[in-house]
Amino acid sequence: MKFFIKSYGCQMNLYDSQRIEDLLLSYNHEKVNSPEQANLLIFNTCSIREKADEKLFSDLGRAKLLKNQNKGKEFVIAVMGCVAQSRCEDIKSKHPYVDIILGPQEVQNMQECIMKVLNNQITTTLALTDFKSKNKFEVFNKNEIRDRLVSEYLTIQEGCDNFCTYCVVPYTRGREFSRSVQEIIVEAKNLVSRGCKEITLLGQNVNSYNGVGDDGMPRRLSILLEELASISGLSRLRYTTSHPKDIDENIGKAHRDIPILMPFLHLPVQSGSNEILRRMNRKYDREKYFDVIDMLRSYRPDIAFSSDFIVGFPGETENDFEDTLDLIKRVGYSQAYSFKYSPRPHTPAAKMDSQVEESVKSSRLRILQDLLNFQQRDFNKMFIGKMAQVLFVKEGRDSGQLSGRDEYFQAVSVMADKSQIGSVVEVKIVDAASHSLIGELK
After folding, report:
1. How far apart are the first and last CA of the chain?
2. pLDDT tens-place string over residues 398-430
3. Most buried one in 256, 282, 394, 442, CB count within 10 A?
4. What is the pTM of this model?
């Protein structure tokens, strides 16, 4: 079949989509570049925010039209990922033309499900939503990794045991599971052999990584980073997403001692108010967060931070919101992601009293984003006239332009020959936009 995969949301979905692509190619399916060219449409979904749900259902409407246009021919629609897990019955009842529904821990069964649909072995939507993390990676490991980009993701830990009151992850990805060190090393080496120069380790709570080593004993993230850093041909390491409560001094030391570990960390705080953090069940307070920031800066003074913020969480007062603005000013972020709170299915926060009015959420979000954008512009301008180490990852928008990232994960555009893609090049920063830098070759 000719397949097209659309991914929504987080980096982990992109990783899963790539491994599903490897799986389908191993069965001689053909990848195409648009839904109109395909007769197998796969939607890899995200349910972190309501907007991602809406995008899916809009795309399913267009998929239905394509299926109707191909009536009488082989045409399969599959929904996988977090919305498939959390809203399986909704999809089955409201979108009965969807053939396959697979939760995040069932995606490894995609080929088997496709064959059941094609062989008319089912009469209704085929839905699998169990939690089988280990089996998922065992299946992925059997498939050859196909060509990759210069910068790639590698999932090392999946699921979450924290149960933040606003978050659906424990209900869609399941409980925490860490892959073994050996599994990860083998996959990382395969990625490097395919041209990858930078690997970003992924986990819903990556700092809780606790995979076993060759001796059967558990290893923490800092040890895994040391082992990965020894892979020949690997230029850079990053990891995301971290939970502040699980950052320890060994991570600070890793940022100090591992040359290819980049001085940039995404450390979501969500709110600067202790009361809201308590209601969110984040298991730390603002003082603990400041301590973590200070510790990391003591080991790596130039480290840059990004974060996530939720405004308008149930019960958030003006004083709570002011505490968040105060935290942002005290930490100083190179970039950040911010959203209005939206109730998610099955989460305790959706049932809390004191829901904040939409107009208040919107007003607070504008104020918060103005502050974050100011900090990002200020951070970017600081690099004008300085040298940066840029890993070129792809061709830029303009002819003769390359796009890459510096050590601090800032996007950098430079006029350079495409033969430089995959190389870390010293670049002089000559200008700064709000979300990117402009450089010149030395």
Report:
1. 48
2. 999 999 999 999 999 999 999 999 999 999 999
3. 282
4. 0.93
Give the Å distances, CA to CA, from 181 to 153, 187, 198, 260.
16, 10, 18, 19
Tell how strand 2-7 and strand 40-45 pair up. parallel
Distance CA 104, CA 129 (A): 8
Question: Which residue, 333, 162, 149, is CA-closest to 242?
Answer: 162
Phi-psi region of 268 (alpha: psi -120 to 50; beta: other; left: phi over 0): beta
- Please state at what angle helix 318-331 crosses helix 358-381, rounded to 10 degrees: 10
List 28's β-bridge partners, or say none: none
Nearest to 1 by CA among 28, 19, 20, 22: 28
Q: Can the peptide bond before residue 241 be classed as cis, meaning omega within 30 degrees of 0?
A: yes
**What 3-state DSSP class applies to 199?**
strand
Angle, alpha carbons 252-254-258 (nearest 5°): 140
DSSP string, 101-154: EE-TTTGGGHHHHHHHHHTT--SS-EEE----HHHHHHHHHTSPP----SEEEE
Sheet holding 304-311, edge to edge: 264-266, 304-311, 335-340
